[in-house]
Amino acid sequence: MRYRQLGKTGLWVSVIGFGGIPIQRVDDQTAMQLVNRALNLGINFFDTARGYTDSEAKLGLVLRERQQEAIIATKSMARTREEMARDIEKSLRALGTEYIDLYQVHNVQHPSELEQVLKPGGAIEALLEAKKSGIIKHIGITSHIKELFKDALKTGFFETIQLPFNPIESDGIPEILDLAAAHGAGVIIMKPLAGGSIKNAALALKYILEYPVSTIIPGMDSLQQVEENASIGSWSDNLTPAEREMLNREIKEIGITFCRRCGYCRPCPQGIDIPLVFLLDGYYTRYGLTEWAKERYRGMKVQPDACTECKECEDKCPYNLPIHRMLVEARARLQ
Ligand code: SF4
Ligand code: SF4
What we know:
By secondary structure, this protein is of the alpha/beta class. The protein has helices at about 30-40, 55-65, 80-95, 110-120, 125-135, 145-155, 175-185, 200-210, 225-230, 240-255, 275-285, 290-300, 310-315, 325-335, and strands spanning about 5, 10-15, 20, 45, 70-75, 100-105, 135-140, 160-165, 185-190, 215. The longest helix is centred in the first third of the chain and has 15 residues, at about 80-95. The N and C termini lie far apart (about 45 Å).
């Protein structure tokens, strides 16, 4: 396994990390086997979230015993000081550890959310207090909106950024990587297989590793996946011309009709959270988290059937997605 520096944190992370979403699907015993195997193969970076139901608890079954070998990252959607302090405590209890290496502000979608995190009484205060007391070691931020990282990194609070990057979602990546390097921030790559759209995982991971990212966190829920992904972490060569061509062929076949969660379609006059519908649909169709996705869909404040077909969102979508038709299809699966 190869290791890269996680920005200025001083941590060295395996180039292949362990994404904690799919572990929700397996039982405790399988989860323990996967985490132990990953550690034994040199994977030392584990990323989870408050929002991934029992993922923290499942990772914690092993990581609390082998914490010296692991770097644990988790995250919370909390935006206020009070909520964030509560979530840090909950994460520590679920993981069963005395500290967490990296605590991230999860999925900041809009500049106003970042403002909320940073203003007096915002989540950053709880994170800084937790860092001072040693229960978290570093602070990071995750987002699908690349422009947000510019403002976030300027604050000097965030030591890592986490963002989606894969062979079909690569727009603007070199600029973000330059920005991260200029601020000494570690770069954690999520959605390396575009939410399961890319089937040739080895080529996609190899493609991403050609860039100066710190670690990639594909989700894993089988020993075979852990072993295959870990083996890619020891390759040091770039894609061969034949592999690049194979990857390009697959990208062409996948096409471009999928939501990149950039958020430019917001706000919908009816209040529909369009990217959230497509995110849940992706979990349903690509990750097999059918009940999880349906439950969250049912909890949405405004359902897509409120759509009046005004098409305002379609005019704003930089990828020209047929949003209304896609919403109808997602609704048929999720309702
Ligand atoms: S077409 Fe539907 S989803 Fe899009 S902005 Fe109009 S009401 Fe909202
Ligand atoms: S539907 Fe289009 S504009 Fe809206 S988040 Fe997805 S890609 Fe962006």
